[in-house]
Amino acid sequence: MKGKRLLQAIGIVAIINLLSRFLGIFREIVVGYQFGTSYEADSVALAYTLPNFFYVVVGGAITTAFISVYTKIEGPLGQREYLERVFAWMTMALIVFSAGLMFFSEQIIGILFSGLSEENFRLTADLFRIMAPATFFLMISMWLTGILNVNDRFSWAATATLLLNGSFLGIAVVFFPWLGAYAHAWGAVVSAVLMCVFLVILIRRGKFFHFGFRFNRSPETWRTMKLAIPILLGGATLQLYFLIHRMFGSYLDEGYIAALNYMSKIVQLPQSVLMMAVTTVVYPLLSRKVAAAEKDGISDLYLKGLRLMGMTILPVAVFVVFYAEDIVQAIFQYGNFSGQSTAMSAPLLKILVIGMFFHAANLYVTRFFYAYEHSIYPVVVSLLSVLGINVGINFLLIDTMGAAGLAWGTSIASICNFGLLLIGSKYVLKLQKKSEVKWGADVLKLVTLLLAFGALLYGWNRLFQMDGPYISLITGAIIAGVLLVFLMKVLRFREIDDMMNYVKKKVVRSR
Length: 511
Hints:
Elements (H helix, E strand, L loop, with lengths): L2 H33 L3 H9 L1 H22 L5 H28 L1 H8 L5 H14 L2 H17 L3 H21 L1 H4 L2 H25 L12 H17 L1 H13 L6 H36 L3 H38 L6 H14 L3 H16 L4 H26 L1 H25 L11 H25 L5 H22 L3 H17 L1
Helix pairs in contact: 1-2, 1-8, 1-13, 2-6, 2-13, 3-7, 3-11, 3-12, 4-7, 5-6, 6-10, 7-8, 7-10, 8-10, 11-17, 12-13, 12-17, 12-18, 13-14, 13-15, 13-16, 14-15, 14-16, 14-19, 14-20, 15-18, 16-18, 17-18, 19-20
């Protein structure tokens, strides 16, 4: 694909993915409107946990491994036979697996979420039994998007995800008056089927695969499975946080699973957008520098990326801490999402947003390990943070702090993960800062910026109380923007001068 066409494809895919993310957030808003922070909202979140986990983590790992192996097979005949083998074995395994999820739905829910009340357990098991077949269609669809991607049909693959989220949302809204919580269960299944059918039609029309079966074994199929395992472990971090939230949350009062879910999705949105930018812009540039052994260029990119993320995400996190209640009211407080639901959710948002920069930075730094093909260290560090530090803090704090203890577990674990990755970047990747880069001074200046920004924002909040969340957020955002630019200018951040010069050039050119 030519450079111009590639940039156009990246832009289109980024826009479609962003729309899809917003539809996903809007579906959470709809759940909040319909159920607030009730046990029904908990059940909807719990029932979709496993289908979504297998779709994102397992399906994503198999698809990534498939692309890696497929692109190395020479000749159309070898590629066709490989497609037939993967399709045959995946289809058979997923039919058996999805049937097992259906037939053993009560046992699975009982083991994973053992603290649920009888009423909550019964509804969750019923919803999960309906949603379980979606696992088959979701994972097959993920693999089908891989076929489209290796044939440079990136926008087609992204549109399928948009269809999934859009149809899921539409079914949940339209059929809610008759089906209640079950509208979300059927929405999960029907939307997964629609996405799968849509992808099959596109692939057949493009003549990329004729959907034949071939059950014989081959070295390529085995290599795909071996490649998928480390990818699966490395990509499971975020979904494991969600799963652990819900496992521990089953022992809390009703509504806290939903509250944690809503707030996690708010924090996850900028992280997802950043990951899109890293994947489409930074990673190809990084890979080229690694291939050319540009050690200084790699270190420079590494430090610049962390610095820019710190200056963009951390001030946003400070703003969210001071305006958490207004944010929750403006986004969620409609219908059955009451003032009590906001009172449950806003404190969790304040804690979770502390980890927002570190989650994003962990994804960013991990890409440098992948570019150097050192995948074991970040995988081990991530699993240690999620399953060790996070789970340990959850056990320590859940009795005294409840849902807030789970939120602190997530944020503290992400900070520890970041620290361990920084150590690895120095001693495993051997990334060293340039002698003229004053890393300590930059960190001190950033901390000073955040403290001053937080103090001034706190003073503004104390002196001027606005009526209504919308007015409060709009005025707060304007004041925060002015304060941030002023402080960056006073503290002599070079990025603010670069931005102002860029704006001036644009204004001059427009004239």
